[in-house]
Amino acid sequence: MANTERNSRLRVACGSATKAEFNAGKIIVPPDSSRSIILVGGWLKATGNVTQATSIDICSTASSPVVGVSVAKAQLQGAFAPLLASTSTLTTVGVANVKGVGLQILSVGTDETTATVCDYCVEYMTV
Amino acid sequence: MATRKSRELCVTGSRTLAQVKAGSYILPPFGGAYIITGGWFRAVGADCAGATSVNIDDDTPTTQIVGVAVAVGPLDDGVIYPFDSATNVTRTTFGTEFKYGRGLQIIDRTKNSLTGPDTIDFCVKYMKVSG
After folding, report:
1. Which of A42, B43, B113, B130 is 20 to 30 A distant from A86 in Cα terms?
2. Would residue A116 count as lying in a domain?
3. pTM score > 0.90 for this model?
4. Which residue from A minimizes the CA distance to B122?
5. HEC string of A97-123?
6. Are A49 and A77 in contact (CB under 8 A)?
7. Which residues does chain A have within 8 Å of residue B118's beta carbon, measured at their own beta carbons?
8. Is there a domain that residue A2 lies in?
9. A108: CATH
10. Could you give phi then psi for residue A4, rounded to 5 degrees?
């Protein structure tokens, strides 16, 4: 993390994404051309076991998405999966994305067909 | 404890090893009180060692009031360690307010014995209350 201090309101995006939505990528925080997003926490919870997708990620909406957090399918077996768990891969957490880029929930690997829904709660700041 | 309702805020940043050893403000004093509600630390550059814990404490002279203390054991290079972890975290003034007029700092609780990382990143979720 650059030695840049950020202090702002904590925002939360909660909802559900169907498999069709997270396979294609569902925008959960829309881009704002004047703001950057800092992902700081949250959780995922799949309904049904994730079996085909390698992981479900919270990543940027850039054309080449920048991964924030990647939660492996082993953690998405119907249980509550904190994003900051030691089993997650934390790539861009606590670091500001570039301005004008939002966040999306996106499966990685083969399209998921077993898990029907993935609930999400993503904590973030905009700066 | 009375119910406190307020907007949740968040401060993120980074402090050098020297700053953490000496104690460094992350939230300055103001007319009200802070309540820590969550957060995490991440060592960068090397694993933490040498000290007992890295804390978020208030700025009471001589005897700081402990907010949250994270044992150095799990503070390994690049690992985010949440304050709500089941182990290695002591939450002392957590979800309840510090004294009015006190700021919060990140500090090596054993004072100047922390070794290892170049920097420690932090994310502290908090509320501000007054009256």
Report:
1. B113
2. yes
3. no
4. A94
5. CCCCCCEEEEEEECCCCCCCEEEEEEE
6. yes
7. none
8. no
9. 2.60.120
10. -115, 125
